Amino acid sequence: MKPFHEIQACDLASLSLQDEINSRGYALIRGLLPQQALSHVLGDITRILYSAGWLVRDDDPLERMADLSAACGDPDPSFKRTYQEVFNLESFHDLPHHPALKRVMSMLVGEQLLIHPKPIGRLIFPHCERLVNHAHQDFRFMNGDSECFTAWIPLHDCPASLGPLQILEGSHRFGIQNHDHENLHVPEIPAGAALGGNWVGGAINAGDLLIFHSLTVHAASPNLSSQLRISLDCRFQDRGRVIDPANLAFAGESGKSWENTYAGWNSDDLKYYWKRMPLTFAPSLAELEQLAKTTDSPRRRARYVRILSQLEEFAECAGQEANFSVPIQVIMTGLGTRNEGSLPVSGFWQKTNRRVMA
Questions:
Q1: Where are the alpha helices (DSSP H) in the chain?
Q2: Pairing of strands 26-30, 218-220
Q3: N or C: which end of the chain has fewer CB within 10 A?
Q4: CA 201, CA 158: separation in Å to the nearest integer?
Q5: Which CATH number belongs to the domain containing residue 13 in this structure?
Q6: pLDDT digit of tens for each residue in the chain (358 aa)?
Q7: Last residue of a domain, one of 212, 241, 270
Q8: What is the Cα–Cα distance from 307 to 47, expressed in whole angstroms?
Q9: How many other C-beta atoms can be found within 10 angstroms of the C-beta atom of residue 40?
C-alpha cells in the first residue's frame, strides 16, 4: 500500500489544500490540532468507557486497554447505551469548532462554513472483524450536496496496528459508487469493486487531520492492537449548499433529542447554533411531508415524521411561526410502529420554497 501524501500544518495555504483534495480526494495535515484539546476529549470519553467496563480495570483509562469480554459495536444495545453518554459530552461537540479546524475547513469550503452538528465517535475494539468499516463513501449516508467533507480526527497516536483509515486515491472522481445493502448494518462497496487509483494509508497521530471528499472511497483497517481506537468524524460544508435535514435531527427510534444531549452542558454557545443560519433543505420540508404520507414503508414514514417534528421544534426555538398543510397527528395515523405515539407534535411550519430559516 502506498503511504499517504502529507502536508505540514505550517505549510498550509488555501490553494494547496484545494488542489490536494481536487487531485487526490483527501488531504493529510500533520500537526494541526493542539494536544491539549484532544486530551480533554479523550479523558472525558475514556472515563465513560472505564465506567462501562470496556477497559481493563487495573490500567490507566487513558491507555485504552480493552477488556475483550465487553467487545461491542453498533447496533449492539450495550454499545448504543454507552455511545449515547459519549455523544452527550460537551467536549465531544466542542472539538469540531476548534479555531484551527475551522480555519482549515474555511480554506476548503469558504467563509460560509457549516459544521454538521452530529459528529460521530468511533470506539473500535481490537480483534473484532465484524466491527470493521469496509469500503464506502460518506455521501451514501449524508445525502444533501456532495461538496461536503469529512475530517477524521484520532484522539491519540494511531499506528497501523490500531486500524487507521485508508483512502482510495482519486475515487471521488467516479461519482456515487454501488454499495451492497443486503444483510449489512452499514452498506459497503463490494470487495475489489471500488473505482479509483491506489489505496493509501499509514500512521495518523494525535494532532493530525485527515480530510476527504464525501465521494472519496475509504475504509478502516483492522485494529490488531490491545487498545481501543478512539476517533471523531466531523463533517463540513458551505452553508449555501443544500443539506439533508436528517443531519440536524434524530431520525431513528432511539428517543434521542437535542434537549437530552444539551442537559449537562455548561455553556449555551453551541446549542442549536445552526438554527441561526439560512439553510436549504433537500429534501425540502414539503417533500418530507409528502414522503411522510405516501412512502410504502411504515418504518420510513415514521422516520420522516420524526424529522419533521424535530424541525418544527427548531422553528419554535428560533421564535418563528410554523405551518404544515397537514397536521403531524394526521400524518401519523395508521403508521402502526412502536414509537410514533410519543413524538412531540404541536403547531405548524411555514413553507414557501426550499429556502428555510432553521
A1: 14-24, 35-51, 77-87, 90-94, 99-109, 139-142, 258-262, 285-294, 298-317, 328-332
A2: unpaired
A3: N
A4: 11
A5: 2.60.120.620
A6: 999 999 999 999 877 899 999 999 999 999 999 999 999 999 999 999 999 999 999 999 999 999 999 999 998 999 999 999 999 999 999 999 999 999 999 999 999 999 999 999 999 999 998 889 999 999 999 999 999 999 999 999 999 999 999 999 999 999 999 999 887 778 999 999 999 999 999 999 999 999 999 999 999 999 999 999 999 999 999 999 999 999 999 988 777 899 999 999 999 999 999 988 999 999 988 899 999 999 999 999 999 999 988 887 665 554 444 344 444 443 433 443 333 322 222 222 223 233 333 3
A7: 241
A8: 32
A9: 16
Q: Is 260 helix (H, G, I), strand (E, B) or coil?
A: helix
What DSSP string describes 147-175? -EEEEEEESS-B-GGG--EEEETTGGGG-
Segments forming the whole domain that contains residue 131: 2-241
Query: 3-state class of 217 per DSSP?
Result: coil
**What is the distance between the alpha carbons of residues 304 and 213, in angstroms, rounded to a whole number?**
27
Q: Do 29 and 226 form a contact (C-beta atoms < 8 A)?
A: no
Q: Is 135 left (phi over 0), alpha (psi -120 to 50) or beta?
A: beta
Report d(CA 23, CA 169) in Å as an integer.
9
Query: 273 and 157, same structural domain?
Result: no
CA distance 358 to 356: 6
Domain count along the chain: 2
Task: Say how far apart CA 277 and CA 300 lie, in whole Å.
Answer: 28
For the chain, the distance separating the N- and C-terminal CA atoms, rounded to the nearest angstrom, is: 45
Residue 300: count of CB within 10 angstroms of its CB: 13
Q: Which three cell numbers stand for residue 35?
A: 494536544
Question: Which helix or strand (DSSP H or E) is residue 210 part of?
Answer: strand 209-213
CA dist., res. 313 & res. 191, Å (int)? 42
